[in-house]
Design a protein that fits this description.
mainly alpha
């Protein structure tokens, strides 16, 4: 079994990393856990994700999700954690 990321996966990682770096609200950095965020903080970030079409990464496209595969969802989750 090959566990290396494909070139497409690496490109996706770069896209996610750049999006987070450019769009994650500065004032929310350091609030590492949901319980540290207020309702409006949580909604602000989710509105940003929704504009990009990334608010529901595990949902099927027909229900408003991204249609990402398991590797893409893993990369997205990993990059969110990396960004704190």
């Amino acid at each position: 079994m090959n566990l290396d990321f494909s070139p497409e996966d690496l490109a996706f990682r770069a896209e996610v990393r750049a999006f987070i770096a450019e769009n994650y609200p500065e004032r929310l950095k350091g609030l590492a856990h949901r319980e540290d965020m207020g309702r409006e903080d949580f909604l602000e970030w989710h509105r940003i994700l929704a504009k990009k079409g990334w608010v529901a990464p595990a949902w099927p496209v027909e229900y408003g999700g991204t249609g990402w595969n398991a590797v893409q969802r893993y990369i997205f989750s990993e990059e969110l954690a990396r960004a704190d």
